[in-house]
Design brief:
Elements: H1 2-17, E1 21-29, H2 37-50, E2 55-59, E3 65-66, E4 69-70, H3 72-83, E5 87-90, H4 103-114, H5 117-123, E6 130-131, H6 142-154, E7 158-159, H7 168-177, H8 181-210, E8 216-221, H9 224-239, E9 243-245, H10 247-250, H11 270-277, H12 293-299
Parallel strand pairs: 1-2, 1-8, 1-9, 2-5, 6-7
Antiparallel strand pairs: 3-4
The protein binds zinc ion.
The site of zinc ion (ZN) has 5 residues, from strand 1.
Length: about 300
Amino acid sequence: MRWLLWIMTALAAAGSCAAADIAITFDDLPATTMRDPERLTRDLLAHLTRRKLPAVGFVNGDKLLDDGQVVPARVALLDRWMEAGFELGNHTFSHRSLHRIPPEEYEADIVAGERHLVDVVRRHRGRLRYFRHPFLHTGRSAEVRDRVTTFLKKRGYTIAPVTIDNSEWIFARAYEVTTDAETRKKLIEAYLDYMEAKVEYHRDEAVRLFGREIRHVLLVHANALNAEAFGALADRLTKRGHRFITLAKALKDPAYRSRDEFFGGGGISWLDRWALTRGVPQDFFANEPRTPQWVQDVAGIEE
Ligand SMILES: [Zn+2]
């Protein structure tokens, strides 16, 4: 029987080596740019709840206001997330970059971001415990980064890093400006292929860096593209063997305690930061999937 056990162990190892555990995070809540934000939110959440996928949504407080006044319908969009059992985090009030404003202003933007969000979270007996840096900009110096990190910790936040960064927002822009049904269909197909390749690239990058699979954090946005296609994306990833886990579980991976001495201007993934901190050669980042040129053209954005 020992050979049978050996084969089963080998099969389990082979199966797991090509798949990852992934936490899903949505930034820039609530989605307000589209004509029907209620429907967008409902559709997006349905993809998640139908598949029982955990997720955390990161909120920009200023999206709850119009002309300085709270818009109850927008706050209600956050209620939908909480009612469906999801957790909300702080993404600052006005989505400004720590690379553009002094740290004290940035800290004020964090506090301002709590103003209406705390009420929503409390109403649903939730906890406000995660913070995501806009643009993934974490500071151009150790002094600034450490200062803001300490500030966040004191306010009870855990920073939510990202390992699977991507240009999903370019696809989303293209999707929003397209009215032609055929092009939209093509965009969704391209999006699914691109994201599948991107997840695979970062999974492989982590294995090259750590010598093992790590638990990942995926960054996407609350937008019309995902309201349409996120379910199909999740199904594709599940088919490849990937599993979806909570952010709390992902962050328990010791990989997230890796040294990060990246202070460049780019809002890059934490995997890239850890790799650069370790001084990997430039070709370590070769073969990263790119957004197809035609998608960039439709979006009017250069990657
Ligand atoms: Zn954002």
